[in-house]
Specification:
Length: 292
C-alpha cells in the first residue's frame, strides 16, 4: 500500500504526495471520525489510489511526531518564529512558540524579518535568547539579506513559519521558495496585519518544503501543563536545577532561587525571566481551572 504526505485539504478532499512527487486526491474513511481522528495537512498516510476519475481513500494515519491545533498541521520539524519592527514584536507569542517547540521536540529558529529597516531587532533577539538554543537569522525579503543562510538552515526539514499577523510571513515565504503568494498590506490605522492565508498547505520550492498556514497569532500553550513543568522548557534554567533553596522551585519569586540570582548577576536576561513569569501565571490559572 503506497504512503504519502497530505499537502492540502479542501472540504472532505485531501491531496497526498508520494515520495516520487505524484499527487493523489483522497477522501477519509468514516472510521477516522468514529475513532475521533481527523486527517490534517502534514499527516503521513497509507492510502488506496483512486481508479480513473474516482478519488482514492486514506486507509491509515501514521504516528505524528508533532501537531499544532491552530493552525492544524502535523509533523512540523522546524518552526521559524518570525518577528519584525512593525507591527511591534510580540515577544510573548515568541515565548509561547519556543516553549511549544521544546515540548514537542521541534527545532526552533528566530527570524528577524525586514532587517533593512535597521532597528536592531536581531541583536536584541540574540541578546535575550542567547541560551535558548534557537539561532537567530536577520533577513530581508526586499533586499535578499540573509535569505541564503536561512534557506540552508531550512533545507531537508519540514518547516513552518509562525508569527503575528503583519510580519510578512507570506512575503518571506515567497522570497524563500520562489512561489508567488498573495500578500496583504499592514493596516496603517491599527498597525496590524491583514491575514491573507486561509488554509494550510505544504509547498515545495527552491529545495524547501514549507507549510503555508494561517493562525499562531493567538497561540495558547496546548494541553494542560503542570506549573512545575514549564521551567523544564527553558534551557538556560536547567543548569540551575537542584541548586535553589526549595525543590521544586518554580523560579518565580521564591527566596533562594538560583535562577533569580543568575538574572541579578546578568547571566540570564531579565526580560526572559519576566516573560517566563507571565507564562507561568497563565499555566497556573489554566491548571487551577482544569476541572471546570
Amino acid at each position: 500500500m503506497p504512503e504519502g504526505i497530505l499537502i492540502r485539504g479542501i472540504g472532505s478532499f485531501y491531496t497526498a504526495q508520494d515520495a516520487d512527487g505524484a499527487e493523489f486526491i483522497l477522501r477519509a474513511k468514516k472510521k477516522f471520525r468514529h475513532q475521533g481522528q481527523t486527517p490534517i495537512v502534514g499527516d503521513r498516510v497509507r492510502f488506496t489510489p483512486g481508479m480513473g476519475e474516482e478519488e482514492g481513500w486514506i486507509e491509515e494515519l501514521l504516528p505524528r511526531r508533532s501537531v499544532f491545533v491552530r493552525p492544524p498541521v502535523a509533523n512540523v520539524e522546524t518552526l521559524l518564529i518570525v518577528l519584525c519592527p512593525e507591527p511591534e514584536p510580540d515577544f510573548l507569542l515568541a515565548e509561547r512558540l519556543l516553549v511549544e517547540c521544546r515540548r514537542q521536540g521541534i527545532r526552533s529558529v528566530l527570524v528577524a524579518a525586514k532587517s533593512d529597516l535597521g532597528d536592531g531587532l536581531a541583536e536584541r533577539l540574540r541578546r535575550e535568547y542567547a541560551l535558548a538554543e534557537a539561532p537567530v537569522y536577520a533577513v530581508s525579503a526586499r533586499t535578499g539579506e540573509g535569505l541564503d543562510a536561512l534557506r540552508e538552515a531550512m533545507r531537508g526539514s519540514l518547516c513552518c513559519l509562525a508569527g503575528q499577523s503583519g510580519v510578512g510571513k507570506s512575503t518571506l515565504l515567497t522570497a524563500l521558495t520562489g512561489i508567488d503568494l498573495e500578500t496583504g498590506e499592514i493596516s496603517r490605522k491599527i498597525a496590524r496585519g491583514k491575514n491573507t492565508t486561509r488554509r494550510a498547505e505544504l509547498l515545495s520550492g527552491n529545495g524547501l518544503r514549507v507549510f503555508d498556514t494561517a493562525g499562531f497569532s493567538l497561540l495558547a500553550l496546548t494541553g494542560r501543563m503542570e506549573p512545575e513543568q514549564l521551567r523544564l522548557y527553558y534551557p538556560e534554567f536547567l543548569e540551575h536545577e537542584g541548586t535553589c533553596r526549595f525543590d521544586p522551585c518554580l523560579h518565580d519569586r521564591e527566596p533562594g532561587c538560583s535562577v533569580t540570582a543568575a538574572v541579578r548577576e546578568g547571566l540570564i536576561p531579565a526580560a526572559r525571566q519576566a516573560r517566563y513569569r507571565q507564562l507561568l501565571a497563565e499555566v497556573r490559572e489554566a491548571w487551577d481551572r482544569r476541572y471546570d
